[in-house]
Write a structure and sequence with these properties.
The structure holds 2 protein chains of 2 kinds. Chain A is an alpha+beta fold. Chain A is built from 28 helices and 24 strands. Helices cover about 55% and strands about 15% of the residues of chain A. In chain A, the strands form 3 sheets. In chain A, strands 1, 2, 3, 4, 5, 6, 7, 8, 9, 10, 11, 12 and 13 form a 13-stranded mixed sheet that branches. In chain B, a hairpin with a 5-residue loop joins strand 2 and strand 3. Chain B is globular. The chains are: A alpha+beta, B alpha+beta.
């Protein structure tokens, strides 16, 4: 005999009860008919034959029962029965079911999304072999704690380190591809030969770069799989052929496999992900001072197996100490950081904040459903007591309640996942494009199972308490109780505690949301130092091969700006090295004549080059002196414009206009002081900065064009491109956007957190209000008799309503008190997100609770009204 | 007929009786099985439906019997049971087991006489 087969048979028949029953019934009817016929043949009359036949064969109903026991799996049939009953019961208590379903579905959707975020951003290992051994290494000094690495330090670390398996450099540097007569700027990164081996990436075709290719600018390039597919139709013979880059022929030496993820980086690097299309060698042909003083390359390393961060730190700093002794003026120490940490950066706290908020919402939903379950269990007390008195065991009663909640949990879990799947694209849109690892965020197995698990746990937890309570009560008591006697004091206290907890948790979320909201207000109302609206922005990178000399580049800019200014609707146009809030962070040290540098590090500031008109285009206010003008050209005396921070840092209390700065071997006169532009959108810090006149200093580097227009700036983008192509048809127009969009994107992560937190707070508030409503409505029904007696004794409707409202105020007050005790701790966790608002901001601490109190009182209006308008006689008669 | 003393069905013998009956007489419906057992026992064994059909269902689940709807000689629809290959093996095993038990019992009872 085959037990498995038998089990499968039984399992199968568990789900076919009804047709099987019918077939068996037919079979038995036939049997009975045959018996009757046999009896008739023995000479019995119709009725008598039937009686005898029944006596001999037994009844069909009884025999069917016996057969049913043989069939199916009893526990499964029992569970199916439970579930069927649960379904019926849930259908009957439609109000309960709908509220519980909605509450739990929303909580599950929210948590699924947040778990997807946590999993994709924080938990999932990076897509490289042994990602835990990948570290970022920075040069670090007092003024620049996390600075890119100089070429000299790279060579020393690479040669002398004992803890690194490999060390590689990389720095973003786009190339201009001419393909099928169309110029296009392609995202490209310069790397040292160790880059791919460090990450564990093998080339699909061709070979990697070699050491000698870091010298002498050999025009060799490795293609990313995406570019190879889209532009070169996966031509496997492309290795060894040449393509046209920056108007020169370059030799393709290799192609990468699909799915190579760039590691990203905050300085001169494309984002993490499949964002890079071309890879070319870093050049170490630097001037003598450039080897140690130019910091424009990011460093990534792989630790040897078994090496800890501390080991590597000690090892590299031993080398750094030695370098500082050998090289005069070197101030750099080494700082090591796991790649994941560097990659996720500040967004880590956003994700944790959201996770905490999501868990609070889930807890509130749980408390809410528990309250509902208790209320319902009380309402069904007699029904259950009857079942108990008739011999239903504890397990049987618990099972009935648990099946209902299980069903609820499963249904809302499934609905929550569907909702989450629908909301996921929205979340992707709301998050900024540079949010780390955003492309890895999806409804992963972990997110789905976590959310479903949370739904099941929540609903089961909420159902177990009332179930066991019921099982523990003496059925006789429950049966003997009249409806109006106060029911289980502990039960109502427990319900009150649940409501208080909901209010407390909701007030935590509301206070947090209020704090963030106020910070956002402060940020948007702040004077950023420039006006972003109505400005078109795009990239312009005149390649060095076509514009080798500075005067060539200056002439290009002058001609292009002239054209752009003549376009209809254009108020101003300019070209500069950067626009605010795009992560530009190029700094240089300088000297102040007559002032010897004190300490090891001299003055330094953010260096920018700009054509005249940039400040007027961005509406950066002039504070002193004059702005840059057309006459500040190569023939004129060298001048510079500085920001207020530079003045307050290096010329405090002095007249800056007319002072000189020692810059790159020549003296420049300060002619103007402009307002500070916040370096980053969400904090107050402004570093000292200055602007060279681009017509005097214009190294070959990527530039940004800004054009202020009267209307929608994107409308003139085509005209601007055409004007440019009339001057040089090979110049690609890339990165077209508006300053407004850049500003909005810079706030996107904050706004996303704020938006979610507001939604959560709203959700929490509604759930808490519903909890209060439910409890009060129930109490009012329970106390109908008491209210009736009070009315009969002369209490006015107002008195009765006041009694209910007082209950609501007490419940809510207790919850708010608890919430406010916890709020300072919670808001301290928020400090990193606050701007211009204290974590104990009094307005938030008052406004949020006041809102909750108002909503709670609103929620208690209906119960209060019921209490006020109860008919005393009806209430008394009812019992 | 009522005067005939009824025989108890020994636990575990029902399966053997059903299998043997089906094996000897070929595909049979439930009533025919019951009638045959009654006939063989001279009316001592009367299986009611509450005993017979659970046994048939069990044997079918275990894969010893196969059942299908067909028509009788009198052109009525009935469910016919027939022996499967594993049912035949089962019957042999049960028969051997029963014969051993019976011979032990017989010897034991003769000794006592």
């Amino acid at each position: 005999m085959n037990p498995l087969r038998q089990w499968l048979h039984r399992l199968g028949s568990s789900f076919r009860q009804r047709p099987l029953d019918r077939s068996m019934e037919d079979e038995m009817r036939f049997h009975l008919d045959m018996e009757i016929e046999a009896a008739r043949r023995r000479g019995l009359s119709g009725a008598e034959a039937e009686r005898v036949a029944r006596l001999r064969a037994g009844s069909i109903a009884g025999s069917l029962d016996a057969v049913r026991d043989q069939r199916g799996l009893p526990w499964l049939t029992g569970t199916l029965d439970d579930l069927r009953h649960a379904m019926v019961s849930l259908g009957r208590h439609r109000g309960f079911t709908v509220v519980a379903l909605i509450a739990l579905t929303l909580a599950v959707a929210v948590n699924a999304l947040i778990l997807a975020l946590v999993d994709g951003v924080l938990l999932r290992p990076l897509p490289y072999p042994h990602p835990d051994r990948l570290v970022r290494i920075f040069d670090s000094s007092e003024q620049n704690p996390l600075f890119p690495m100089s070429a000299g330090n790279y060579l020393d670390y690479r040669r002398e380190s004992r803890t690194l398996e490999s060390l590689a450099l990389y720095t973003g540097n786009d190339l201009e591809l001419m393909h099928e007569e169309r110029p296009e700027r392609i995202s490209a990164v310069q790397i040292s030969p160790e880059f791919f081996p460090t990450l564990g990436i093998r080339l699909m075709l061709g070979r990697n770069f070699v050491e000698s290719e870091m010298r002498g600018n050999p025009r060799v390039v490795i293609l990313g799989h995406k570019l190879w597919t889209t532009r070169f139709h996966q031509d496997r013979h492309i290795v060894g052929t040449t393509i046209r880059l920056n108007r020169e022929p370059w030799t393709v030496i290799g192609v990468l496999p699909p799915g190579v993820q760039h590691i990203g980086g905050t300085y001169r690097s494309p984002l993490h992900g499949e964002t890079v299309d071309l890879w070319w060698p870093i050049s170490l042909d630097l001037p003598q001072n450039g080897m140690r003083n130019w910091h424009f390359m990011n460093a990534i390393a792989r630790l040897r197996p078994g090496v800890t961060l501390a080991d590597a730190n000690a090892d590299l700093n031993r080398i750094a100490d030695d370098i500082r002794k050998r090289i005069p003026g070197s101030v750099w120490r080494a700082v090591i950081m796991p790649l994941t940490q560097e990659l996720v950066g500040k967004s880590r706290s956003t994700v944790w904040l959201l996770l905490a908020a999501g868990i609070i919402v889930l807890a509130i939903a749980c408390a809410n459903i528990a309250g509902l379950c208790i209320a319902r269990a009380l309402a069904r007390r007699r029904d259950l007591a009857v079942r108990q008195a008739l011999g239903a065991g504890l397990w049987r009663l618990v099972r009935a309640q648990v099946s209902e909640n299980l069903l609820l949990g499963l249904a809302s879990g499934a609905a929550g996942l569907v909702l989450a799947a629908a909301l996921l694209p929205l979340m992707r849109v709301l998050l900024p494009a540079d949010f780390p690892r955003l492309h890895e965020v999806r409804l992963s197995l972990l997110a789905c199972s976590g959310a479903i698990g949370a739904a099941l746990c929540t609903s089961l937890l909420a159902g177990l308490f009332p179930a066991f309570r019921q099982a523990a009560t003496d059925p006789l008591n429950a049966l003997g109780e009249s409806r109006s006697t106060s029911s289980g004091r502990t039960t109502s206290r427990f319900r009150a505690a649940l409501v208080c907890a909901q209010v407390a948790l909701a007030s935590l979320l509301c206070v947090s949301a209020a704090l963030l909201l106020r910070s956002s207000r402060m940020l948007t109302e702040r004077d950023h130092g420039f006006r972003p609206e109505g400005v078109l922005v795009f990239d312009l990178s005149p390649p060095g091969s076509a514009y080798p000399k500075e005067p060539d580049r200056v002439r290009l800019l002058q001609r292009a700006i002239d054209r752009w200014r003549q376009l209809p609707g254009v108020a101003a146009a300019a070209v500069s090295t950067n626009v605010p809030w795009t992560g530009y962070d190029e700094n240089t040290s300088f000297g102040i004549p007559g002032r010897p540098t004190s300490g090891s590090e001299g003055p330094q500031a953010r260096q920018q080059m700009t054509t005249p008109g940039w400040f007027t285009t961005l509406r950066v206010p002039l504070r002193k002196g004059r702005l840059l003008e057309e006459r500040d050209n190569a023939q004129a005396p060298p001048v510079i414009v500085v920001n207020e921070s530079l003045v307050s840092r290096y010329f405090p209390g002095e007249e800056p206009i007319g002072r000189e700065l020692d810059l790159w071997g020549s003296k420049r006169k300060i002619v103007g002081v402009v307002a500070d532009i916040a370096d980053r959108p969400a904090d107050l810090a402004v570093e000292p900065a200055f602007w060279f006149p681009a017509y005097q200093v214009l190294p070959s580097r990527p530039l940004k064009v800004v054009i202020r227009t009267a209307g929608d700036p994107l409308v003139i983008a085509n005209a601007a491109a055409q004007a440019l192509h009339e001057i040089d048809s090979e110049l690609p127009l890339a990165g077209v956007t508006t300053l407004d969009q850049i500003a909005r994107a810079a706030f996107a992560e904050r706004n996303f957190a704020l938006w979610l937190l507001e939604t959560f707070a709203l959700l929490a508030m509604s759930l808490a209000a519903f909890g209060i409503y439910g409890l009060l409505a129930y109490t009012v029904t329970q106390r109908r008799k008491e209210i009736g007696i009070r009315s009969a004794l002369g209490a006015t409707p107002g008195d009765n309503a006041r009694m209910v409202l007082r209950d609501a105020a007490v419940l809510c007050g207790a919850g708010l008190g608890l919430g406010l005790l916890l709020a300072p701790a919670a808001s301290r966790l928020l400090t990193g997100f606050l701007y211009g608002v204290s974590p104990l901001d009094i307005i938030s601490m008052v406004a949020a609770p006041a809102l909750i109190l108002t909503i709670s009182l609103l929620a208690s209006i209906v119960p209060a009204w019921t209490a006020a308008n109860g008919k005393p006689l009806t209430a008394l008669r009812d019992s | 007929m009522d005067s005939i003393p009824k025989a108890e069905i020994l636990p575990g013998t029902l399966d053997l009786m059903i299998l043997q009956t089906v094996a000897v007489l070929g595909p049979l419906h439930g009533y025919a099985i019951a009638a045959r057992l009654e006939q063989v026992s001279d009316g001592a064994l009367q299986l009611n439906m509450g005993t017979l059909y659970p046994g048939l269902v069990r044997l079918e689940h275990q894969g010893f019997l196969r059942a299908c709807w067909d028509v009788t000689e009198t052109n009525r629809k009935a469910r016919f049971y027939s022996l499967t290959e594993s049912g035949r093996r089962r019957l042999e095993a049960e028969r051997a087991g029963w014969e051993r038990t019976a011979s032990i019992m017989r010897r034991l009872l003769e000794e006592l006489r």
